[in-house]
Amino acid sequence: GIQVEQSPPDLILQEGANSTLRCNFSDSVNNLQWFHQNPWGQLINLFYIPSGTKQNGRLSATTVATERYSLLYISSSQTTDSGVYFCAVGRGTDKLIFGTGTRLQVFP
Amino acid sequence: SQTIHQWPATLVQPVGSPLSLECTVEGTSNPNLYWYRQAAGRGLQLLFYSVGIGQISSEVPQNLSASRPQDRQFILSSKKLLLSDSGFYLCAWSSGPGGYTFGSGTRLTVV
Q1: How far is B47 from chain A (nearest CA, A)?
Q2: pLDDT digits over A59-82, tens only?
Q3: Which of A33, A97, A98 lies closest to B98 in CB terms?
Q4: Residue range B13-26: average pLDDT?
Q5: For residues B31 and A91, what is the distance between their CA atoms, to the nearest angstrom?
Q6: Which member of B34, B59, B97 has the closest CB to residue A48?
Q7: A18 vs chain B: nearest CA distance in angstroms?
Protein backbone atom coordinates (compact mmCIF):
# COMPACT_ATOMS: atom_id res chain seq x y z
CA GLY A 1 0.00 0.00 0.00
CA ILE A 2 0.87 3.65 -0.16
CA GLN A 3 3.28 4.86 2.52
CA VAL A 4 2.90 8.36 3.92
CA GLU A 5 5.71 9.98 5.87
CA GLN A 6 5.53 13.30 7.63
CA SER A 7 8.30 15.49 8.97
CA PRO A 8 9.25 16.75 11.40
CA PRO A 9 7.49 14.50 13.95
CA ASP A 10 7.54 17.28 16.55
CA LEU A 11 7.82 21.03 16.27
CA ILE A 12 8.01 23.65 19.02
CA LEU A 13 7.55 27.30 18.09
CA GLN A 14 7.10 30.64 19.73
CA GLU A 15 4.08 32.67 18.75
CA GLY A 16 4.65 34.63 15.57
CA ALA A 17 7.08 32.15 14.01
CA ASN A 18 6.58 30.53 10.63
CA SER A 19 6.82 26.81 9.91
CA THR A 20 6.78 24.29 7.08
CA LEU A 21 5.45 20.76 7.47
CA ARG A 22 6.25 18.14 4.86
CA CYS A 23 4.40 15.06 3.62
CA ASN A 24 6.04 12.49 1.33
CA PHE A 25 4.06 9.68 -0.27
CA SER A 26 5.29 6.58 -2.01
CA ASP A 27 2.98 6.34 -5.03
CA SER A 28 0.81 8.48 -7.27
CA VAL A 29 -2.38 9.74 -5.64
CA ASN A 30 -5.42 11.67 -6.77
CA ASN A 31 -6.56 12.69 -3.31
CA LEU A 32 -4.50 14.54 -0.71
CA GLN A 33 -5.84 16.31 2.33
CA TRP A 34 -4.37 18.09 5.32
CA PHE A 35 -6.08 17.87 8.71
CA HIS A 36 -5.55 19.52 12.07
CA GLN A 37 -6.35 17.59 15.25
CA ASN A 38 -6.87 19.88 18.21
CA PRO A 39 -5.87 18.93 21.77
CA TRP A 40 -9.41 17.59 22.37
CA GLY A 41 -9.12 15.14 19.48
CA GLN A 42 -11.35 16.84 16.94
CA LEU A 43 -10.07 16.54 13.36
CA ILE A 44 -10.66 19.48 11.04
CA ASN A 45 -10.17 19.37 7.30
CA LEU A 46 -7.76 22.15 6.30
CA PHE A 47 -7.11 21.59 2.60
CA TYR A 48 -8.05 19.27 -0.21
CA ILE A 49 -5.01 19.63 -2.43
CA PRO A 50 -4.08 16.77 -4.79
CA SER A 51 -2.00 19.26 -6.79
CA GLY A 52 -1.19 22.95 -6.92
CA THR A 53 -1.31 25.60 -4.23
CA LYS A 54 -4.07 26.87 -1.97
CA GLN A 55 -4.21 29.49 0.74
CA ASN A 56 -6.60 30.04 3.62
CA GLY A 57 -5.64 32.91 5.89
CA ARG A 58 -2.33 32.17 7.60
CA LEU A 59 -2.23 28.64 6.20
CA SER A 60 -1.23 27.58 2.74
CA ALA A 61 -0.42 24.28 1.10
CA THR A 62 1.42 23.12 -1.99
CA THR A 63 1.41 19.68 -3.56
CA VAL A 64 3.88 18.62 -6.23
CA ALA A 65 2.23 15.43 -7.37
CA THR A 66 4.96 14.48 -9.86
CA GLU A 67 7.52 14.52 -7.05
CA ARG A 68 5.17 12.96 -4.50
CA TYR A 69 5.24 15.52 -1.73
CA SER A 70 3.10 18.18 -0.16
CA LEU A 71 3.98 21.09 2.11
CA LEU A 72 1.84 22.89 4.66
CA TYR A 73 2.92 26.41 5.60
CA ILE A 74 1.86 28.10 8.81
CA SER A 75 2.70 31.77 9.08
CA SER A 76 2.61 33.96 12.19
CA SER A 77 1.74 30.95 14.35
CA GLN A 78 -0.66 31.31 17.27
CA THR A 79 -1.19 29.14 20.34
CA THR A 80 -4.46 27.95 18.82
CA ASP A 81 -2.44 26.34 16.01
CA SER A 82 -1.15 23.75 18.49
CA GLY A 83 -2.13 20.15 17.88
CA VAL A 84 -1.27 17.43 15.41
CA TYR A 85 -1.24 17.99 11.66
CA PHE A 86 -1.97 15.03 9.44
CA CYS A 87 -1.47 14.50 5.77
CA ALA A 88 -3.74 11.85 4.21
CA VAL A 89 -3.71 10.46 0.68
CA GLY A 90 -5.93 8.32 -1.48
CA ARG A 91 -6.00 6.84 -4.94
CA GLY A 92 -9.05 5.81 -6.91
CA THR A 93 -11.42 5.78 -3.94
CA ASP A 94 -12.35 8.07 -1.08
CA LYS A 95 -10.38 5.93 1.40
CA LEU A 96 -7.61 7.95 2.99
CA ILE A 97 -4.28 6.66 4.27
CA PHE A 98 -2.96 8.87 7.04
CA GLY A 99 0.60 9.80 7.84
CA THR A 100 1.94 9.65 11.38
CA GLY A 101 1.49 13.38 11.87
CA THR A 102 3.48 16.38 13.04
CA ARG A 103 2.85 17.48 16.62
CA LEU A 104 3.04 21.27 16.84
CA GLN A 105 3.31 23.19 20.09
CA VAL A 106 3.14 26.98 19.97
CA PHE A 107 4.12 28.86 23.11
CA PRO A 108 3.28 32.51 23.90
CA SER B 1 -25.99 21.59 6.66
CA GLN B 2 -24.36 18.22 7.18
CA THR B 3 -23.52 17.03 10.67
CA ILE B 4 -22.07 13.85 12.08
CA HIS B 5 -22.86 12.50 15.53
CA GLN B 6 -20.79 9.97 17.39
CA TRP B 7 -21.38 8.59 20.87
CA PRO B 8 -20.49 7.98 23.58
CA ALA B 9 -17.57 10.39 24.01
CA THR B 10 -15.79 8.16 26.53
CA LEU B 11 -16.25 4.55 27.49
CA VAL B 12 -14.57 2.24 29.99
CA GLN B 13 -15.30 -1.43 29.45
CA PRO B 14 -13.98 -4.62 31.05
CA VAL B 15 -12.08 -7.19 29.00
CA GLY B 16 -14.47 -9.69 27.45
CA SER B 17 -17.48 -7.36 27.41
CA PRO B 18 -19.32 -6.43 24.18
CA LEU B 19 -19.01 -3.09 22.40
CA SER B 20 -21.32 -0.99 20.29
CA LEU B 21 -20.36 2.47 19.02
CA GLU B 22 -22.79 4.37 16.87
CA CYS B 23 -22.30 7.06 14.27
CA THR B 24 -25.03 8.91 12.39
CA VAL B 25 -24.89 11.51 9.66
CA GLU B 26 -27.49 14.17 8.95
CA GLY B 27 -28.08 16.40 5.98
CA THR B 28 -26.77 14.13 3.24
CA SER B 29 -27.70 10.93 1.52
CA ASN B 30 -25.67 7.91 0.44
CA PRO B 31 -22.45 9.06 2.12
CA ASN B 32 -19.32 6.96 2.25
CA LEU B 33 -18.75 6.09 5.91
CA TYR B 34 -15.54 5.18 7.72
CA TRP B 35 -14.31 3.94 11.10
CA TYR B 36 -10.76 4.85 12.10
CA ARG B 37 -8.80 4.04 15.23
CA GLN B 38 -6.06 6.20 16.69
CA ALA B 39 -3.70 4.62 19.21
CA ALA B 40 -1.13 6.40 21.36
CA GLY B 41 -2.21 9.84 20.15
CA ARG B 42 -0.64 9.54 16.73
CA GLY B 43 -1.65 8.06 13.38
CA LEU B 44 -5.10 7.01 12.21
CA GLN B 45 -5.70 3.47 11.03
CA LEU B 46 -8.65 2.79 8.74
CA LEU B 47 -10.69 -0.10 10.16
CA PHE B 48 -13.84 -0.26 8.00
CA TYR B 49 -15.52 1.66 5.23
CA SER B 50 -18.93 1.47 3.63
CA VAL B 51 -20.26 2.79 0.33
CA GLY B 52 -23.87 1.79 0.98
CA ILE B 53 -26.36 -0.03 3.19
CA GLY B 54 -25.09 -3.47 4.11
CA GLN B 55 -21.81 -2.95 2.23
CA ILE B 56 -18.82 -3.19 4.56
CA SER B 57 -15.15 -3.49 3.68
CA SER B 58 -12.63 -4.42 6.35
CA GLU B 59 -9.15 -3.03 6.10
CA VAL B 60 -7.47 -4.80 8.99
CA PRO B 61 -8.22 -8.23 10.47
CA GLN B 62 -9.21 -7.72 14.07
CA ASN B 63 -11.59 -8.32 16.90
CA LEU B 64 -14.08 -5.76 15.61
CA SER B 65 -16.92 -5.70 13.09
CA ALA B 66 -19.02 -2.99 11.48
CA SER B 67 -22.54 -2.75 10.17
CA ARG B 68 -24.58 -0.21 8.22
CA PRO B 69 -28.25 -0.95 8.86
CA GLN B 70 -29.45 2.40 7.47
CA ASP B 71 -28.08 4.83 4.91
CA ARG B 72 -26.77 7.28 7.48
CA GLN B 73 -25.96 4.95 10.37
CA PHE B 74 -22.67 3.16 10.93
CA ILE B 75 -22.05 0.88 13.91
CA LEU B 76 -18.79 -0.54 15.24
CA SER B 77 -19.10 -3.66 17.37
CA SER B 78 -17.22 -6.32 19.22
CA LYS B 79 -18.48 -9.46 20.91
CA LYS B 80 -15.58 -9.63 23.38
CA LEU B 81 -13.23 -6.72 23.94
CA LEU B 82 -9.48 -7.16 24.29
CA LEU B 83 -7.06 -4.85 26.07
CA SER B 84 -5.56 -4.05 22.66
CA ASP B 85 -8.91 -2.62 21.52
CA SER B 86 -8.32 0.48 23.64
CA GLY B 87 -7.94 3.65 21.64
CA PHE B 88 -9.65 6.66 20.14
CA TYR B 89 -12.30 5.68 17.59
CA LEU B 90 -13.34 8.15 14.94
CA CYS B 91 -16.19 7.96 12.50
CA ALA B 92 -16.06 9.96 9.27
CA TRP B 93 -18.13 10.52 6.17
CA SER B 94 -17.39 11.76 2.68
CA SER B 95 -19.42 12.63 -0.38
CA GLY B 96 -16.45 12.62 -2.69
CA PRO B 97 -12.78 13.62 -2.79
CA GLY B 98 -12.05 16.44 -0.38
CA GLY B 99 -15.29 16.15 1.51
CA TYR B 100 -14.06 14.33 4.59
CA THR B 101 -15.74 15.18 7.90
CA PHE B 102 -14.92 13.51 11.20
CA GLY B 103 -17.06 12.97 14.26
CA SER B 104 -15.85 14.01 17.69
CA GLY B 105 -14.59 10.52 18.54
CA THR B 106 -15.02 7.94 21.30
CA ARG B 107 -12.20 7.32 23.73
CA LEU B 108 -12.39 3.62 24.66
CA THR B 109 -10.45 2.18 27.56
CA VAL B 110 -10.57 -1.57 28.07
CA VAL B 111 -9.66 -2.57 31.61
Answers
A1: 11
A2: 999 999 999 999 999 999 999 999
A3: A33
A4: 96
A5: 18
A6: B97
A7: 23
